[in-house]
Amino acid sequence: MELADIINPNNLVYEKPKLLTENTMHYCPGCSHGVVHKLLAEVIEDLDIQEKTIGVSPVGCSVFAYNYIEIDWQEAAHGRAPAVATGIARTNPDKVVFTYQGDGDLASIGTAEILHACNRGENIVVIFINNGIYGMTGGQMAPTTLLGQITATTPNGRDAGRNGYPLKITELIAQLPGTSYVTRQSVHTPATIRRCKKAITKAFQAAMDKKGTSFVEVVSTCNMNWKMTPVKANEWMVENMFPFYKPGDLKDSSKTDPESYTPIKN
Amino acid sequence: MGELRLMKGNEVIAEAAIRCGCDGYFGYPITPQSEVMETLMDREPWNETGMVVLQAESEIASIHMVYGAAASGKKVLTSSSSPGISLMSEGISYLAGAELPCLIVNVQRGGPGLGTIQPSQADYFQSTKGGGHGDYRLIVLAPSSVQEMNDFVELGFQLAFKYRNPALILTDGVIGQMMEKVVLADFIPRATEEEIDQKRGSWVTNGRKPNRQRNIITSLEMDSGRMEQNNLRLQAKYDRMEEEDVLFEELQCEDADYLLVAFGSSSRICQKAVDQAREKGIKVGLLRPITLFPFPKKPIAALAKRVKGILVVEMNAGQMIEDVQLAAGNVLPVMHFGRMGGIIPSPGEVVDALEQKLIGG
Does ipTM come in above 0.85? Predict the structure, then answer.
């Protein structure tokens, strides 16, 4: 059998989503961002909303998300993506707007912006990548860093007395009346990737249906700054992060009383 | 002629925004400018024109909401007062870096810090020299009347869209709170999405249309060579503003021996001071910069060759005087008179300062 017999359109069983660009990703090997980007591209393509979707990528490794998905993008200042998305969504109510934020961005410097956007129930999707560390700046402690976890600014492990406690911001978000769908996912196995794609699809559908804010946390690895192999990082995430950041839906408004929520008025 | 009304400066900003076809206002309460958002909320423009009015959780959020909406091609504004503008400085730098048109209104109060709620002009440096990080400029308009508060809303937007750059109305608590008669502008309809796509489709991020490339709004560039090119492009734009859009007003300068230079509410006081000085036989003229950036360097340089001295009158410790000195050169004395802390100088004080500092008693 020749190579041309194998690499043949008839044998194609999988291809990269059309909305992913040809740009080489700058993410480290083993990083979760690439998988989540792929899922986003697939969901936007599946829902056929590429002509009305605007992505907002704030400071962090994923500020460059705009290089990888073939849609309109706005880069945002550190933590401010939910405010930027509010500005777009309020003045363009027929568009689909999402933010793509890391844990330092969303749960530390942007705490006010995310809480208030979710509390107002902005019709946006929030993709929240939680890897417990600052990736782009070189592995410093994040608000989500676990107790005892070693980072560049907690070289002896995070100490509650010195550094405070890890913040379960998704649990806070789930309590806000403006959020309709709040879930915590991961992308470390084929099964979890499939589940995560369903969650992202549901989140986008909720925003399109004007149900308020939908929020998808993806517990992720940063094997480079965790100083582990990709495989070891996945194991460490399952063993250490999942007990504290438990995967699963935190809120699903389709199962609660829709009368309790007043949608955004434009 | 348009509709004649008696209105507060702050109220007029709100009315002018609705009438000029604004798509959105995002703001946060702070004295002495809260009437802007209060008037908008009372007017309910969402029923009339579809304009969005949103009270944000902070000035930081307000300016980033402006960023998002402006980047989608919309005509949007925010307003605040000095401490709030400091908080917005991050977003203003990003707006300038990403070259987004928008309008910001600063109804100044005295500082530094929490300072006072009384009027001041101490944000001249902040407005004209940056305020936020990086090499950038705002188009800065300084109204001296309630009428100009009205007129400069649409003018600010026109300049902002002409240059793809934020414009700032730098006013203060005097003009924001003062009531005067004003001829309101006629209504301009809000731009439709088709009009936005036609006029601004090359850069707006309102969803990638089949007939164009995807657009990306960003101020980020990791390649130093390309980042320098971005900076050079911005500087060329600021140079063009200095060539094409300097605005100023001269009052009784033709026969003047001495020149007052003042902007905004100080220029109103100086108008009276000119009259009082002339009654005493001192020939004084007034130059009022209307655009603080681009600054009217050429007319000041020209007058500096004809007069014996210049007195710069500002409600601050001496800020615009630096630009006047640079424009005038070392050919004549350029002195400063100012009050701070929310104290508004009287015309008599200005004449006294002129006599003491320039004429020699």
Answer: yes
